[in-house]
Specification:
Strands 1, 3, 4, 5, 8 and 10 form a 6-stranded antiparallel β-sheet that branches. A 4-stranded antiparallel β-sheet has the order 2-9-6-7. It has 2 helices and 10 strands. The protein starts with 11 loop residues before the first strand and ends with a strand. It has 177 residues and is mostly beta strands. The protein has one domain.
Length: 177
Amino acid sequence: MVSSAQRRRLTGFETNLTVGDGDAAFDTSAECAALVEAYTSVAGFSLIWQKTVPAQQIIRWGSGSALTQRNQGFMFFYALDAGTGFEDGILRLVVANARETTVQVVKEMNTQRLHTVTSTNSLTATPTDINEMIALPEQVASPAAGEDSLLQLYFSSRIPTTTVDVLGFSIPCTVYQ
């Protein structure tokens, strides 16, 4: 019998978040691409994707351990004008509470390292070799997002393209429930 004083043991599993996992206003490539395009000339960082953590879950950016190189998540991100070029800049992985009164940056990355060099379409922009992808082990020293908290992506353009019309990503995370 489990006493009420005992804490529930959380079990984690590794997965990847993609555009389609976002909240209603952030769950398509077109919606997220439009946000990047709208904020291209903004000097700071702008919210381009968000996911509300479901009930009874805790989610941390990243998966696996940096101590075992092949046992960690690998990620990609691209914002592109299909057939023309990439919009590159700085991508921030963020955890925020439900009211966004506490917003904590977990990781910041240059997007030039997160996609291929071929901007023809989403397939050619997506890296397929993990030797060319950026590893993102579980960010255990950073805050986790609990129920109703927000996982967010912020972006700041540094190298604009003509018009951002396609956006895609796969970012590892660890889900505890």
